[in-house]
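Batch 3, record 17
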Amino acid sequence: MCASIAAMNPADLGLPVDVPSTALFTDHYELTMLQAALANGTADRRSVFEVFTRRLPEGRRYGVVAGTGRVLDAVENFRFDSAVLEFLRERAVVDMRTLDWLASYRFSGDIWGYPEGEVYFPGSPILRVEGSFAECVLLETVILSILNHDSAIAAAASRMSSAAGDRPLIEMGARRTHELAAVASARAAYVGGFASTSDLAAGFRYGIPTVGTSAHAFTLVHDSERDAFTAQVASLGRGTTLLVDTYDVAEAVRTAVEVAGTDLGAVRIDSGDLLLVAHRVRQQLDELGATSTKIVVTSDLDEYAIASLAAAPVDAYGVGTQLVTGSGHPTCSMVYKLVARATSADPKAALAPVAKKSTGGKTSIGGRKWAARRRDADGVAEAEVVGVGPVPAALADHQLLTHLVKAGEVVAREPLEAARDRHRAARAALPLSATQLSRGEAVIPTEYV
Amino acid sequence: MCASIAAMNPADLGLPVDVPSTALFTDHYELTMLQAALANGTADRRSVFEVFTRRLPEGRRYGVVAGTGRVLDAVENFRFDSAVLEFLRERAVVDMRTLDWLASYRFSGDIWGYPEGEVYFPGSPILRVEGSFAECVLLETVILSILNHDSAIAAAASRMSSAAGDRPLIEMGARRTHELAAVASARAAYVGGFASTSDLAAGFRYGIPTVGTSAHAFTLVHDSERDAFTAQVASLGRGTTLLVDTYDVAEAVRTAVEVAGTDLGAVRIDSGDLLLVAHRVRQQLDELGATSTKIVVTSDLDEYAIASLAAAPVDAYGVGTQLVTGSGHPTCSMVYKLVARATSADPKAALAPVAKKSTGGKTSIGGRKWAARRRDADGVAEAEVVGVGPVPAALADHQLLTHLVKAGEVVAREPLEAARDRHRAARAALPLSATQLSRGEAVIPTEYV
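Prediction for the assembled complex:
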């Protein structure tokens, strides 16, 4: 399903939210810098920008690249239509010459990047954008918005999915975040290992499986819990999931099995001491003969709560708030930095490395970089190697940057499943301590050569 | 400008992101509950849902209602078009009867709410949605998405704006959050007291003033800092803001004044010990005769950092990450609960209060509520009073809920400035300790009568 959708042109998808242009998801200063650079000719200097982060969120062992597919859509749709140009003119954001230039804007450069789902570490050059200064500088804001958001969600999802082991995770955080951030969150969670989402827009847009049970309101609108369960089973079948904590859990479980029979699909517990309640409910279900009825738990779960329920008779976890807020780290600290540029506007001019040199730990390393993950004899990752210049022969086959956009054309679309599978494999190739939930340093060091 | 934009139909605004329908920003279970309720007739029971929060984020003294205007847009645009219906049919989310019902969906009920910018406390009934169970239950997810996100951002913005005093705050967090959450964040920040945004889409969509300076990349693409400053001043005028921390700050300030003269608009400092550097830069600017050149500081500011710079010679603050992530609290814990419903589908049937009664502190209070803010003799708020039944005469003029949607028609559109002004007034009417940054309890108690 995902495969067929990914093969389509995004414009055909009938988005619930149509994105005719991503050009205004841009900071004001990108356009004023463009204006000044067009005026003195530096706009045409060949430039290399890189996206990287100086550190992982405190205590995290690895990061997860997510949003790459959305970046490709955003770059393709980065066009200034007449309404946008009129807005910029009316507000006097930039001059007429710049408006003329923007009217025909279309990214014609190259983008390389870590493929979606790959893991990353401090200094990993996750994305590299090459082209004229003018065409590259404009993409900064939208690229960072997407990668910083989606990667933060995917990192939380990855920790939760390793804590959950083989039990499926349901993403249900739409109500806790911006309505469109919710759609991107469901997508990033899927990359990070979640099985499904409650968000219908994410199902529509990305083909992610959607699931749902029922809310307390459904029980409360009925005259009794029995009436509510009867109505739900009658309409949705015995395979449905009944919510059993509106009044008394033990009574609800008894009623549920009376109404649906012993082949009731599942019950959901959304409050209380989940460890204790899950054990009691499992025992009660078994005693009632509903031995195959599953137990779904929800209620402010995070990776720690999920891990603490490993020994509980729980069949699936629904995760909301903590997923869409990145489990304490709702954004990454990725930056988009000019690392090299031509010494003149001549297209044949050599590239010179550049870097900010100032106080406050914000120094970056100049030069167009490659990256590779060195592995030990058992295939376990042992270092993230980042370099400028020729790639050592031993690392040539372990390079991480792939060509995503070639002379303005997207060349690396893939189904979301591919990113999800890649993430599982990349995480599995890290040292075992990567999935420890306790705080620590990046699980492998970054080496600069 | 905001006033004229708000007076237009949102459909005319030429959104950078067009939202033809908000119907899929909805959890799967809202639709399956609808199906079951349509089948047994409870769908038609008159119902009252309320949005409230059980607690403020830890340590916070008050909350800020934001997103109300976006909720009104979302309710108006909550329609199931053919592409959406086809998706629901193909995925077998709901049955044909439910699809038919959805095809003609249009909210026809009433919505009351705290007006945007108003402050709130635990238990405040921020929004009340009344209509049939079917039409109200569907709106849960999108309403909570908007209010939980936007109110979290506005609350952070409010704390930052009270810390900043009369100095303007610039919202510049777009790159740190989802590209559309960024637009909503700029809007919420404006309600909370920010003066402007870097986000062009927020300027386009909501008429918020946009501003910008330049990035390190602009300096680095030039052969020297002097070349970069010269280009920027030539193109954007002496009133521009020059970024002075790419190499050496003192040298950059000297070059800046040499290039732009003493009527240079401003310099921006984005790294280092801002308190120390601002003092040095102010002294240097003054010595160079640039006494009216302003100093803008940016670099991971939050309300505490802003407060700590109160005595520094700083003229404006640019805030990014901490604003768009709610300064540690990226979401509110607002819920949407059925609090009363008719005892039958008869439109004249009496409303009965309902409430979940279970473990885990998730109990809510049944009944259709009013709310008023009681003030002392000096006009200072002293309690949030929430009740069911008749409003005491002494509180009748201090009620907080206003009519937003009447029989499906939005009746309370207003310019964003109105929400911004209301917030300033509402915060000013709280006890002085409301704006203390230190952790504490809600600044006034919530009383239930």
